[in-house]
Amino acid sequence: MLRSCVSRLRMLAVLGGPPGVAPLPAKDPWSPRRSFSSEVIHMDLSLPNPSWSEDMRLLFDQFMKKSEDGSWKHLPSYKSKFTQRTEDIKIYFPDAKLMKEKLSQAQLFPRSFEEGLGFEYAMFHNCVEDRTVCIFQGGPYLQGVPGFLHGGAIATMIDATLGMCAIVAIGFAMTASLNISFKRPIPLGSVVVINSQVDKVEGRKLFLSCNIRSVDEKTVYSEATSLFVKLDPKTRLT
Amino acid sequence: MLRSCVSRLRMLAVLGGPPGVAPLPAKDPWSPRRSFSSEVIHMDLSLPNPSWSEDMRLLFDQFMKKSEDGSWKHLPSYKSKFTQRTEDIKIYFPDAKLMKEKLSQAQLFPRSFEEGLGFEYAMFHNCVEDRTVCIFQGGPYLQGVPGFLHGGAIATMIDATLGMCAIVAIGFAMTASLNISFKRPIPLGSVVVINSQVDKVEGRKLFLSCNIRSVDEKTVYSEATSLFVKLDPKTRLT
């Protein structure tokens, strides 16, 4: 089981990684790195930065510690401009001219804010239990009702975490449905933990669920269920 | 019915407007304006800008034309830094020190991108049919699967549109649940129309639904249902 999980993670890395994860070197696919290519910056944005609160740093360190025996894996993520990968994505976006124009500026949505202003997060996958955990700190640009995160910002991190859990399980996949119950508002700047898991697999369909809890696990902020569908490389999306 | 709707919209303006809508002058609460206050910029971001495509401009003009007889109302929106309104929001965020620190940089999530990069949108409320329409152009920073909008970006605009529809109907409200069916991916840069409506009111609960269609209305991209709950000013959220 453990070997199978690591194998899936390595395969994703060789294929170029999930959306938002830039191509990684074959030798050590999960090590953080930075390249000053003129077009693509391979900077892992899921590592601690000065905007992270003490709670974020402590949680990150705890999960990195848990990753030492290989049962957990830290999942790096990038802005992914995709300019090196236009050939790969023609299958999903057949109008090459429009694609080039639109994608030249494209950035992964949850990674498109400056440091500390938007979504600060790191994800870890548990290879034994087949689940993904996201530690998340919501910045001041994610406001909805004054002082609290916008429902769309919460939905975004839920979708991103469930999506990563789905991708590790079955490869490239898209959200087909998302059902969220917002139980308590999340204050701006606070740190929460998103726990996601695969509930059922039916062919290309993957059923997942998650919850968002406070760091001390006492407060449940949101719960969600979702359906993801594996993308068929032979099928165009448009 | 028409008078009641306009009255509700005016009352919201006098109260300071819905989240993301800055306080408006009593004389003409719906006219666009700009003030160069050192702290709050009252610039209506739902007006056409150079990043808008021809489709966006045409749709905007069509809805502005429909607004001439008063049956539709253009709903302006702002980044809303809320620095003038800390007294008003203490009821929802009782820790005054933390509130001041967190809210000094706070921006309404869907308005926190630079022009053309994120959410470009304008909303109109139909006072006869009690429904809100949002015309939306998704910028390159909202990417999920390469070439398409992130599920979280779609959820954000759905939540924002349903939220505005709820606010016009019952006053300040928060999302309690959101159920989205993503039927087709939305290409980056395309323009879509979000049609939302109130389905049922039960005390403080408001049930709404919406769909996202292409400009020619032939393609249904997403459908959603939701429950919003009216906020009680006497109840603290934390």
TrEMBL record, chains A, B:
Compartmental location: Cell projection, Ruffle membrane; Cytoplasm; Mitochondrion inner membrane; Mitochondrion intermembrane space
Membrane topology designation: Peripheral membrane protein
SUPFAM superfamilies xref list: Thioesterase/thiol ester dehydrase-isomerase
Pfam families: 4HBT (PF03061)
UniProt keyword tRNA-binding present: no
Protein origin, superkingdom: Eukaryota
GO BP: apoptotic process; fatty acid metabolic process
UniProt domain Thioesterase: residue ranges: 147-220
GO cellular component, one term: mitochondrial intermembrane space
Similarity comment: family membership: Belongs to the THEM4/THEM5 thioesterase family.
Protein name: Acyl-coenzyme A thioesterase THEM4
The organism of origin for this protein: Lynx canadensis
Underlying gene: THEM4
